[in-house]
């Protein structure tokens, strides 16, 4: 059985403000061992499907086309910076998402239609945009925390979300490489 490691996501274009966040945080944390995400691969994951039989991908694609054709465009903003598991013990740096219910409704619809109900009942979708990964722990946790708190009130310009994608993630020694397999347009309602 041949498989691909796939997920459903919203690609985020590289805006001037995103470039500025990367630049300033990079300068503030230049002594940390951070593997920055390739800005061409920025995305908000909607549903990670993992290793999937190639023959199943056509069925998944058909379901996603139906969802897109029946789901209205919506808007969101990137806002504030944070870290997983916490700003005291950062391993993944992220930008938060400020959205109407559109993002959550799209994620739930995709999850239900792709029958991924294996997700535990206490699973809570936490949309975010990963910007970097810290390898081997931080050198100065207070400096990282201070940098992230400096961006607590930041908010990017509003983004119109009019499509989502099915992506493949290829794991390499230099980090994941993403390829868009298919793009799904959302229904346009006089935005």
Molecular structure report:
This protein has 191 residues and is of the alpha+beta class. Helix content is 27%, strand content 40%. It has four helices and nine strands. It has helices spanning 16-28, 54-69, 101-113, 141-150; strands at 3-11, 34-36, 43-53, 74-85, 90-99, 128-134, 159-161, 163-172, 175-185. A five-stranded antiparallel β-sheet has the order 2-6-5-4-7, covered by helices on one side. The longest helix is centred in the first third of the chain and has 16 residues, at 54-69. The N and C termini lie far apart (44 Å). The mean pLDDT is 89.
Topology:
Layout (H helix, E strand, L loop, with lengths): L2 E9 L4 H13 L5 E3 L6 E11 H16 L4 E12 L4 E10 L1 H13 L14 E7 L6 H10 L8 E3 L1 E10 L2 E11 L6
Antiparallel strand pairs: 1-3, 1-8, 2-6, 4-5, 4-7, 5-6, 8-9
Instruction: Report the portion of residues in β strands.
Output: 35-45%
Give a short account of the largest sheet.
5 strands, antiparallel
Number of helices: 4
Q: What is the end-to-end distance?
A: 44 Å
State the assembly state of the protein chains: single chain
Mean pLDDT: 89
Task: From the alpha carbons, calculate the radius of gyration and give it in angstroms.
Answer: 17 Å
Helix content: 25-40%
Strand arrangement within the widest β-sheet reads 2-6-5-4-7
Q: Spell out the helices and strands N to C.
A: EHEEHEEHEHEEE
Q: What's the shape?
A: globular
Strand runs, count: 9
Estimated structural class: alpha+beta
